[in-house]
Amino acid sequence: MTSNLIVYLIAIPLFSSAVLLLTGRKANKWGHLLGTLASASSFGVGAYLFTQMLAQPAEERAMTQKLFSWINVGSFNVDASLLLDQLSICFVLLITGVGTLIHIYSISYMSHDLDRRRFFAYLNLFIAAMLLLVLGNSYLNLYVGWEGVGLASYLLIGFWNQKPTYATAAKKAFVMNRVGDLGLSLAIMIAFASMGTVSFDGIKEAAPQTSTATLTAIGIMLLIAAAGKSAQFPLQAWLGDAMAGPTPVSALIHAATMVTAGVYLITRSNFIFDAAPTAQLLVVIVGAITLLFGAVVGTAKDDIKKALAASTMSQIGYMILGAGLGPVGYAFAIMHLLTHGFFKAGMFLGAGSVMHGMNDEVNMRKYGALRKFMPITFITFGLGYLAIIGVPPFAGFYSKDMIIETALNAGGIKGILLGSAALFGAALTAFYMTRVIILTFTGTKRWDDEAHPHESPILMWLPMAVLAIGSVASGYLFTRGDALVHWLEPIVAPGEHGEHAELLPPIVVSALALTMVLIGISIAVMMYVRRPVADVAPEDVSALTRIVRQDLLQDAANEAIFMRPGQSLTKTLVSIDEKVIDGAVRGVGAMALGSGSELRKTQTGYVRSYSALILVGAAAIVLGIWVITQ
Amino acid sequence: MVFNSPTLSYSLLSPILIILAGALIGVLIEAFVGKAVRPIAQLSVALGSLVLALIQVIRIRDFTSTAAAIGSVVIDGPGILFQGAILVIAIISIFLIADQDNFTSSPAALPGSDEERQAAQSGTVLTEIYPLTLFAVSGMLLFPIASDLITLFVALEVLSLPLYLMAGLSRHRRLASQEAALKYFLLGAFSSAFFLFGSAYLYGYAGTVSFAGIHAAVIGGTGNDVILLLGIAFVAIGLLFKVGAVPFHAWSPDVYQGSPTPITGFMAAATKVAAFGAMLRLFYTVLAEAQWQWRPFFMVIAIITMIFGSLVAISQRDVKRMLAYSSIAHAGFLLTGVIALNKAGLEASIYYLFAYGVATVGAFGIVTLVRDSSGEVSDLNRWAGLGKRSPWVASAFAFFLLAFAGIPLTSGFIGKFAIFSAAYESGATAVVIVGVLSSAIAAFFYIRVIVLMFFTDATEDGTSVVIPSILTRLTIFISLAITVALGVFPSPLLDFIKPLAIFIR
Amino acid sequence: MTISWISLTAILPLIGAILLSTLPKSAELRAKQFAFGITLLTAASAIAMAVQFQRDNTDLQFVEVHSWIPSFGINYAVGIDGIALVLILMSVILAPIVILAGWNEAQGGRWSVKTFYILILVLETMMIGVFSATDVFLFYVIFEAMLVPVYFLIGGYGTGARSAAAVKFLLYSLFGGLLMLASIIALYVMSGAQGGHTFDLAKLANLEMSSTTQNFLFLGFFIAFAIKAPLWPFHTWLPDAAASATPGTSVLLLGVLDKVGTFGMIRYCLTLFPEASKTFTPVIIVLAVISIIYGAILAIGQKDLKRLIAFTSISHFGFITMGIFAMTSQSQSGATLYMFNHGFSTAALFIVGGWMIARRGSSTIADFGGLQRVTPVMAWCFFLAGMSSLALPGLSSFVSEFLVLVGTYTRYPVAAIIATVGIILAALYILIPVQRALHGPTTPGNENLTDLNLREKLAIAPVLAAIIALGFYPSPLLNVINPAAVHVNSQLGFTDPVPTVEGK
Amino acid sequence: MNSANYLYLSALLFTIGAVGVVIRRNAIVVFMCVELMLNAANLTFVTFSRINGNLDGQIVAFFTMVVAACEVVVGLAIIVTIYRSRRSASVDDANLLKR
Fold first, then answer.
1. C207 φ, ψ to 5°?
2. Is residue B309 part of a domain?
3. Structurally, how many domains does chain B consist of?
4. If you count DSSP H runs as helices and E runs as strands, how many of each does chain B have, helices first?
5. Looking at the domain assignment, is residue A487 inside a domain?
6. Which of B491, B144, B501 has its CA nearest to residue B343?
7. Contact present, B295 and B339 (Cβ < 8 Å)
8. Which domain holds residue B204?
9. Per-residue pLDDT of chain B (505 residues; tens, 9 = 90+)
10. Residue A569: inside a domain, yes or no?
């Protein structure tokens, strides 16, 4: 089934973004409105297409739209064409939906910023790119969106780039993403070299005949790509700094949508990973490591946004883990992705609203007792909180529980390790999220008097409210009769439960998970409710804490392994180029000059030496003659 | 006894005879015509005879004869071409020579003496220069068509002796000029002694002084090889000296620098043509079959010459010396033409000689224009910023330099290409490669001068470019025109040369 | 009657130059307008030619042959295939843009403004000629003669150590050219030995020669082109030249002239010496990869904006060379498209960078800062140009770069993988200057820089438009290039490696 | 007697002359050495003319003398001029032009 509407999903926001950028200051008055409208109408199109899909039987729901032949060289043919299927529609709705809400939120949040128009232009650009990412029907089209969102994220992180640290953060994000892109482009090259195509269904068809080694290689490359985009270990370091961007950006890009692109990539490439166990194993390992890493980092953050960022990292770890546990896990990964989209976006907006009220203070130790001053924010944030730590019946409970369960049932020692990691992660999540809630909303006020905390305007709390509802209900809706699982079946191989003997029955798993959560909460309560909270981070802490505060030394590591050697390499090469290579060139010239002025000395100006020269020449020739005639 | 008088075919010898006649008339003019009209009379006689000779050359171009003068000269295509080239160059340079203030008005007077000053004030001009030039030209015309050793030797001396004198006639820096004359003379005599000694051995080898006889002997190969080799070697030394090949080059920088610039130009251009003409005839016809004896030596000498000339030229500070060394390098390039020893090589050499000669005269013509109160300024550093002061002169000079460097679209490039490809064809790959590399080096110093003229700011030291007289202007203009034409549309000349360039024996 | 389009297009700028020389020195504005008009006319004529070009016909088209120096078998012979056409289009489109963009850059030169434009026009004629020549001698003549106007453009209108840089450029290229001359002489002589002296490319391609000879002659040509391109380690002249030339000159130098090197590799090295090309491919691929990485790293290490751009170009030329010698249809087409795109993105970088430098009066990156706040439009243009230079998907350079990589991968995976690391370095060498120059607080001295005026906007707009448009829809160019590229490969007897698995 | 000896003699004379040119300072003497060389050449010619049994060589000798005479004229003129302006006939004093 084809549809000519798909392109509008992308075209509308792209066009509006172009308009906003090209019109310039003139558009300042209405820019934000146009942006929001664009995003909203894109959502409308998405919704309409969704209804169309629902009307179809499961197998015929996928729609395609060929725009034009993009690159056509020899056997390398790539069409610019779009694919809207059950998987991508989920993303389309998430992106445009949450996106629109955040647009609305930003109208008010950015109202004091002179460059609000530009901000909306970037947001639209992002929406367009992200949609292209999930709608492209080949890895190359996806690549365009992939880097497109990278660009948008770069622009938005650096939105206030007059602050050098922010500009650096943006650059860092882009460069680390490029490392991921390296993986993606290599994956595409390998795919083309071995299968002669780069389109999803082409590769899907060719995959069975392809050697496992090749598929593993592709898989690993894709994993690198995913790690880069989704801030997974070892490419996670950029996400924390990315919080330099305005809070709506963090909510949309660095929580709800872009950072989950890695999960999309892996799920989309299920036909590769299912056939490449080694790659799959690496995926789950990366996922597990990251979920713990993020969670641990989260426990020590005082900056509310960074705490949330760490949590995002960890939650995406869960998703990757889930996706790595395919075929069963894909659906759950996507489910967690969607629910997370709601609650994490909600909480980020909440954080934004708090900052809004506390004139952009981000240090939670300077908050406290805000419950009274911004009740709505508190409620919405609270619901999100309950969702993320996985309290039934909130969304997170369903999605995360599924992943934990699948992990445990992955079979053998692997299953136990992964499962326990997931469970431990749940405990940590509970701990650091509780910590955030406590430090921010409860306890005693720790802010100084020039801060006048107040509830945010409706334009801001309305989106929060909507998202809160999402984080309450979505989980239940998705799981009712395995709705989402069945929905996705045509894409990812049908996930019939437990191809391994179940390690534990579901109910036990849930119980375990909940106990872990309780443990986490109670520790947090003990630490931050019983004891008063210092409004500056205490220095007399264990070495471990210090390390955790420095994000487990991720930046130090990167510096030691890449930056400093790189810089010294650069310096050396520059001087080599100057001295050796160019030196050689100049040396030749100097040599010619030198020998010239040496030979010149033979020209003494004395007739007798000249005649001597002639005589010598003659003698030499005679000698030569004598030699050859002998 | 019967005495059968020698038969001379005057028409074929006419170019030489005309020039000699012009020279003699010149001498008479010196004797009988009043000071006032002398210069113009001399100029017109000289020019007239040169042009007439050229016309004659063109008219007889299709004749070939070995008996023009009882076998002592041979008239054939190459001979005609060399004569034509020499005459054209002479015509171009005669205008330059006619620009009198290059010459001392009283050679006999002591430098800096009152006598000299009076002569200068009285406006006496040196008109003996014209007959001298014509005598030299006559020698040059004879040199490449001589077909026995006597004629060759006589021609050599006839072209050299006037040049020795002319070298000493500069108005400015007279001591240097006289020194140049002395050096030129002593070394020239020295080298012609070698030449003569060599010809003695050739005679000894062949039993005759006629080229034909020597050739026959070489083919027969009956004689004593050592004698032949010594003969070739010493004769070659004499000729290599004239063209300024290393290690017999030493005279040329000093003489070029010391001589009056017009003479330098004339000498550099015309002597090369004549000497190479003779050399080509000797080695292409007489000694062709002995190539295994002489080609190796020539290759070595060519290589040394090209490299030495190019390298030393880089470090020169005086424009005339720089051009001298560049002419040494060019001698090296031309030697590859001799080495080629095939028809292509002959054609290429002729083309190259003509193109180079014309460009050389033009270049020296421009050198005469750059002056300060005390005469010509040949110090390169004082040429700085010339491009700003007088763009046209500078551009013209730059163009000549580019031609020397062999940049495409100049005559020099076609010449280099032709001569190298000929040499390559004959299997002298090494020489070609060295040639190419040394032209890379050579480019270095030509470009240095261009940089100096265009990209360096002038030093205010009174160096200026005089407005060229109509005569000098003619010289420069004609040579520039020819250089451009030969660069862009060389085919007419090439096609003219092709059918003619066949030596007869 | 049939119009000989190539000659017509080529002669227009020359006529323009001659007419221009009749103008008085004082009439600077008129000179500019006139030169601009001429270049537009030339572009029009070239486009008219392109319209009539038959894509799928792989023979040379618009062929003209007139005898020039018969005694050496030298002809004025021109003709174009897809590759040549694309490069000619690039040249003639860039020329007016350069003039418009650098409207005032001729001021303060050693000589009059008029002279500047005469040189530019002469150069344009030669650019068209060098890409369309099918007579090796003619090619060589133009190849060398081109040096002269560029030399005077750099030395006469540049900044800093301009004359030194100009001399370095001239001698270096001349040296390469002479090596090529040696090879050409050998070819000429051989052709003489094998049925008549000729310089006709097609005839020379069929010469019988021993593999050793072929290798030597190949080197003669290749080194000349490697210097021109420039390929590591023959590159050191480029940064100096680019740093001291005016932006406009740099655009023509890196954008067009250096392409003669890579173009020559395709047109001459591959065509004349197929065997030798195969023999040397491994070495060349290695050099190319080194250039990619090396150029990128050095670009990162530069403090001067112009030098930085120059080094990025060295990296890009590495990609092009790699694509050419990987000899798959993707890599070949990619390489040619890359030449075109690189022309535009480098043009954009140099033009905008030139404006920044002209306004700030310094080319040291550290002297800029916060421009995005002061001069948003200019900052955006620079940013876009940078994005194109780092081959952001969606921009034209991405298509070419990816084609080169993917094409190379199918034959030389390792090289391709190493080269791919270049895309990370590219991010660094673009984003570092972007951050230093455009972001951060506005550094003193930049507060009241003026933003682009209308003329400048008009000049840069088409470049950026092309970069974006061709990124989304490269087919118009690719369809012209492919047949030619495939033809080149088939002449070499190369077919693309088949995928191990046939997918769709 | 073996006429080859004349060749050796002339070769010897030629060498003496050549060496003389190199080592003697006085221009006149240098010039005389050149004359010596020329006459050595003459002797060679005559010898060979004897060996080859024809007169060409002797004719050449006459020509050479004439030419040598001309050379003397020119040469002495130059040397004398130099002497007058420098008050010295030493070839080493004339050393303005070098390098």
1. -65, 145
2. yes
3. 1
4. 21, 3
5. yes
6. B501
7. yes
8. 10-500
9. 567 777 888 889 999 999 999 999 999 999 898 888 888 999 999 999 999 999 999 999 888 888 888 888 999 999 999 999 999 999 999 999 888 677 877 777 788 788 788 877 777 778 889 999 999 999 999 999 999 999 999 999 999 999 999 999 888 888 889 999 999 999 999 999 999 999 999 999 998 999 999 999 999 877 788 899 999 999 999 999 999 998 999 999 999 999 999 999 999 999 999 999 999 999 999 998 888 888 999 999 999 999 999 999 988 889 999 999 999 999 999 999 999 999 999 999 999 999 999 999 999 999 988 888 777 888 888 888 888 888 888 999 999 999 999 888 899 999 999 999 999 999 899 999 999 989 988 888 888 888 888 888 877 766 777 777 888 888 999 999 999 999 999 999 999 999 999 988 7
10. yes
Let me know: does C122 contact C11? Beta carbons within 8 Å.
no
What phi, psi does A351 have (nearest 5°)?
Answer: -55, -45
Q: Which of B62, B66, B82 is nearest to B16 (CA)?
A: B82
What is the spatial distance between Cα A235 and Cα B352, in angstroms, rounded to a whole number? 69
Is A362 found in the same domain as A505? yes
State how many domains chain A has: 2
Distance CA A413, CA A422 (A): 14
CB-CB: which of A589, A609, A625 is closest to B233?
A: A625
Residues C483, C82: Cα–Cα separation, whole Å: 7
Q: Which two tokens stand for residue C320?
A: 């092009």
What is d(CA C147, CA C119) in angstroms, rounded to the nearest whole number? 11
Task: Verify cis geometry, omega within 30 degrees of 0, for the bond prior to A234.
Answer: yes
The SS3 of residue C430 is: helix
Decide if A599 and B312 are in contact by the 8 Å CB cutoff: yes
Whole-angstrom Cα distance, residue B418 to residue B431?
14
Count the Cβ atoms, other than its own, within 10 Å of residue D65.
12
d(CA C303, CA B417): 44
Q: Is the CB of D22 inside 8 Å of chain A's CB atoms?
A: yes
User: Cα distance from A586 to chain B (closest Cα, Å)?
Assistant: 13
Tell me if B124 is assigned to some domain.
yes
d(CA A349, CA A377): 9
Same domain, yes or no: A366 and A492: yes
Which positions in chain B have a beta carbon within 8 angstroms of at least one beta carbon in chain D? 107-108, 110-111, 149-150, 153-154, 157, 161, 164-165, 168, 173-176, 178-183, 185-186, 189-190, 193-194, 196-197, 199-201, 203-204, 207-209, 253-254, 257-258, 321
Nearest alpha-carbon partner for D37 in D60, D63, D10: D10
> What pairs with residue C69 in β-bridges?
C74
Q: What is the ipTM of this complex?
A: 0.89
Give whole-number Cα distances, A55 to A58, A61, A62, D57, in Å. Answer: 9, 8, 12, 122
Measured in whole angstroms, how far is the alpha carbon of residue A337 from the centre of its chain? 13
Distance (Å) from the alpha carbon of C457 to chain A's nearest alpha carbon: 12
Of residues D85, A609, A602, A605, the one with CA closest to residue B173: D85
d(CA A17, CA A130): 14
Domain that residue A598 falls in: 554-629
- Where a domain ends, among A468, A503, A533? A533
CB count in 10 Å sphere of residue B473:
15
Domain extents for chain C?
1-229, 273-495
> Does B376 fall in a domain?
yes
> Whole-angstrom Cα distance, residue A93 to residue A90?
5
Place of tokens 């179809």: A56
Maximum CA pair distance of chain D? 52
Residue of A431, A433, A449 whose CA lies nearest to A441? A433
Q: Which residues pair with B379 in a beta bridge?
A: B318
Burial class (CB in 10 A: 0-12, 13-18, 19+), A363: middle
A404 in the same domain as A465: yes
Same domain, A562 and A619: yes
Residue A379 covered by a domain: yes
Residue A76 lies in a domain: no
